[in-house]
């Protein structure tokens, strides 16, 4: 099987390439990258004229809800959603039912993902048994089953002792520990960011300090333990500043931010009239926080953009704001939002965007991808920075419709997603 | 602005209202106050209209006030409360809304523990929705009746010094009052323990102080708030004794205010917690007038939202 992606503009931060180059794929792997390549005998040609060709996008923070919550999402629909959004790989959080805290669940996820094949799935294992924050899960065994990182996402690791042990133990397998950084001892009954808008709306607040306390604590522990630490969905200016400072001291810390924290603020809860699609954790923060996160994209502090794709059933979100579950979907909006609201106004370059959506995430988790060098698996995303789209949740591949971006008109969208050199068809 | 220019279907919060609309409600209430002074306290204005009183949270005062207002306007009112109707037993708010819609009421008065519920209901029913208190968010008719009472005594709002004292963070009465009074040109001061002051409260256009003395000094209107005793368990204050010591209103302390100060309280009062009995019943108190005015203001709101003035005009 030979496929030539011809005439596109290749952006490959893994090889520091940013120019018009062809990519020749043979049997699912990159054969050559160069100018004016020929497809060879029986080779197919994919015309990429006017398109950006990038190493496959990787979303390192999604909730696929399987096993156990298939009414919200499944591995099949979640990976379809990924492919539709231009993602060739996702890393899925362990808060399923039962949680992915042992190898049998890990293997189930890997098997299901292979069966559907719309996108690669990297399972993230739980840190603690039952994500209860008490006892270490069998991390080594899960790594054997395919886990690439550990996290108790959704259930912050409150015990400093457990976090210390996790950071130490994870080093045996060279995997990062991912923290949902939130000190639940501070403002835990909150439902939106604590600030002017929570005051105006009379809703209990989630203070930014709760995130900062946890990041500060964990970075201090990381100094002691060594190992790799990753902050999930970082959302405050202060946390970002701490990560920046820790990086400058050489600590192995990485962080991700979400499109919604980059594009929306707590004011949106008011503007939307208490829409539950503005309710997520961490909550939409202040304008100052948002501006700081954009700064983190520009100066390189932020390693990855991740969607925190969190599908919920319509009925679950169609309740009063205070009672609604946290979270929104994002796999099918991330690329378009980033192209339209970050690249088009010139906040970041297309090259930096590919870094944030592909090379950076691959490095943060230590998974393959983020590069299209000869011999690499041919996971490729083609996108068009000019083509218009309007976000229409009823046409999502995901089962989740919970997005605050419905109706947004975006310039820029994915055009084709290739996994192992094969174009993913969604019929 | 005259009566025919009222176009709203719902009263969800003071946040939505203009100063002119507020004036209109108060003026309309003025004409309804007279009805309550007649021997037969009833007008046929809303005959044939159905009003649902939907109280997910117990509230004898507000509910009775609305009910009396509805009866005096000859509306047919139907009461649903969480305890009697099974509203709380797992039925989603959406289903409740659809069920209510099926009864085709003209107006729904709703009280709920969660902010935004009236807004959600208003989006889904044909009927006009009146917010009778949604969590710590808004309680517009309370602010309107407070304003009505203030206007009666002070003639207007421009430059008036109003001090609101107590648990600012958890009070819907405060939010609606701040919005209303600042729109009308009053100078609002809020005071209370720092542990019960919401963050960035100054962004609402008020002055925040942390001593009772400072809040009372030279003020025209004092509004005391009810302190919920369960707040003690949530680390908001250490004891009732200490709360009263720091923020309880006594006759001696009230002397710091203007000589013609009026004292208000949205009720129900905790005597000996936020207010001493002798002050509550003393000569500055207009607390019972507030209750009486509540009926007139709610009649005005029901009247305006029902749209009957448009049919006539
Ligand atoms: Zn999380």
Task: Walk me through the structure.
- The complex is a heterodimer of chains A (427) and B (313).
- Chain A has 427 residues and is an alpha/beta fold.
- In chain A, the strands form four sheets. Chain A has an eight-stranded parallel β-sheet. A six-stranded mixed β-sheet of chain A has the order 3-2-7-18-19-20, with helices on one face. In chain A, strands 5-4-1-6 form a four-stranded mixed β-sheet, with no helix packed on it.
- Chain A has helices at 75-84, 103-116, 139-145, 160-169, 196-201, 208-225, 237-248, 259-263, 267-271, 287-299, 314-317, 334-343, 350-365, and strands at residues 2-6, 9-12, 17-20, 22-26, 29-34, 44-47, 52-55, 57-62, 87-92, 120-125, 149-151, 177-179, 192-193, 205-206, 229-231, 253-257, 304-305, 380-390, 409-419, 422-423.
- In chain A, helix 6 runs parallel beside helix 7 (237-248) and helix 7 (237-248) packs parallel to helix 10.
- In chain A, strand 19 (409-419) and strand 20 (422-423) form a beta hairpin.
- By secondary structure, chain B is of the alpha/beta class.
- Helices cover 39% and strands 14% of the residues of chain B.
- In chain B, helix 5 links the parallel strand 3 and strand 4 (128-134).
- In chain B, helix 2 (60-72) packs across helix 12 (287-306).
- The two termini of chain B are 14 Å apart.
- The interface between A and B is medium-sized, with 20 and 25 residues.
- Zinc ion is lined by residues 153-154, 180, 232-233 of chain A.
The helix/strand order of chain B is: HEHEHHEHEHEHEEHEHHEHHH
How far apart are the first and last residues' alpha carbons of chain B, in Å? 14 Å
Largest β-sheet summary of chain A: 8 strands, parallel
* Strand line-up across the major sheet of chain B: 7-6-5-8-9
Estimate the strand proportion of chain A. Answer: 15-25%
How many β-strand runs of chain B?
9
Largest interface, counted by CB within 8 Å of the partner chain's CB:
A-B, 20 and 25 residues
List segments of chain B where confidence is low: pLDDT < 50 over at least 5 consecutive residues.
Answer: none
Profile the largest sheet of chain B. Answer: 5 strands, parallel
Q: For the CA atoms, what is the radius of gyration of chain A?
A: 20 Å
Name the beta content range of chain B. Answer: 5-15%
Mean pLDDT of chain B: 92
What would you call the quaternary organization? heterodimer
Computed Rg of chain B: 19 Å
Cα-to-Cα separation, first versus last residue of chain A: 22 Å
Strand order, main sheet of chain A: write it out.
8-9-10-11-12-15-16-17
